[in-house]
Each structure stands twice: as C-alpha cells, then as structure tokens.
Amino acid sequence: MKLRRPRSVARAASAAATAVLALTIGAAGAGTAHAQEAPAGEAANPCHYSTATPALQLGDTGPAVKQAQCYLLHTLIIDDIIEVSGTFDQKTEIRVGQFQRCAGLPSNGVVGATTWSAMERFVNSGRVC
Fold first, then answer.
1. Euclidean distance between CA atoms 43 and 120, whole angstroms
2. Tens digit of pLDDT for each residue in 107-116?
3. pTM beyond cutoff 0.70
4. Is 28 helix (H, G, I), strand (E, B) or coil?
5. Is pLDDT above 80 for 14?
6. How far apart are CA 56 and CA 126, in angstroms?
7. Is Membrane set as a keyword in this record (predicted)?
8. Beta partners for 61?
9. What are the CA-CA distances from residue 76 to residues 60, 96 (Å)?
10. What are phi and psi of 72, to 5 degrees?
C-alpha cells in the first residue's frame, strides 16, 4: 500500500516555501541538507505501527520497519512516495541515509538508537528535511 502524507494547506505552502528556499540558496550549501522547522501547532505523531525501536537495516521486516518508514514519510520532503510496507528495502536504506545527513548524524542507512531518537524528535516537533 502506498501512502501519501496528508497535509493541510498551510503545511503544503510551508513545504513549497522550504523547497524554493532550498533551491534559492542551494549553491551556498553545496549538497548539504538542513532541517526546517514546521509551523507551530503542526506537530502530532501520526505514526502508530510500533513502540519498539530495534536496530534496523536492509532486509529487516515488521512493524518497527513500518514505524521507521512512516517517520521518513513525515520528515523527508521528496519527489516520490515512501511506501510503508514493513520491508526495509534499498529505497528505505537510501531514505534513512538522507534523513541522517539532514539531521547531522553519520549516514550509514541503519536505524540505530540515535537515528530513532532523531526521527521521533523531528516527527514530534514537525521538523522536515
């Protein structure tokens, strides 16, 4: 099942403005991603697949993978849809690495304790990459 991130008009406008800003100042960043704050009052954790936070990597399956994929769906501004399938595939590994770089973490594509913590903070605060 492919899920689209539901957005209010305000959040969509904010995401569009963030994308335009990123394109405008992209040359200054030279490939460096930066997290953006979402508008106040937007934060609410929409992901309720699992409360477990095990280390996850390519090939893993289950509710915790769905939780991580849902977090990615709600924190990354990307052109394609992240499938919340419960299978940690290559696309998920790439998206985890993108999130890690944006959050200032070492990018290895593995969801460990530090990445879980950062994803939860981003989702709960409404921050996006």
1. 11
2. 999 999 999 9
3. no
4. helix
5. no
6. 23
7. no
8. 87
9. 21, 10
10. -65, -40
* Residue type for position 58: L
Given a contact cutoff of 8 angstroms between Cβ atoms, the answer to whether 70 and 41 are in contact is no
Q: What is the mean pLDDT of residues 93-115?
A: 96
Question: Distance between CA atoms of 98 and 129, rounded to whole angstroms?
Answer: 9
Candidates 124, 123, 103, 125; CA nearest to 114 is: 103
Residues paired with 76 in a beta bridge: none
Please report the sign of the dihedral spanned by the C-alpha atoms of residue 32, residue 103, residue 105, residue 78.
negative
The CB density around residue 112, as the number of other CB atoms within 10 Å, is 17
In the block, residue with structure tokens 């992209």: 26
Residue 32 corresponds to which amino acid? T
Q: pLDDT, tens digit, for every residue of 31-51?
A: 334 444 444 444 567 889 999
The span from the CA of 17 to the CA of 11, in Å, is 10
Query: For residues 11 and 43, what is the distance between their CA atoms, to the nearest angstrom?
Result: 11
Indicate if the pLDDT at residue 103 is higher than 70. Answer: yes
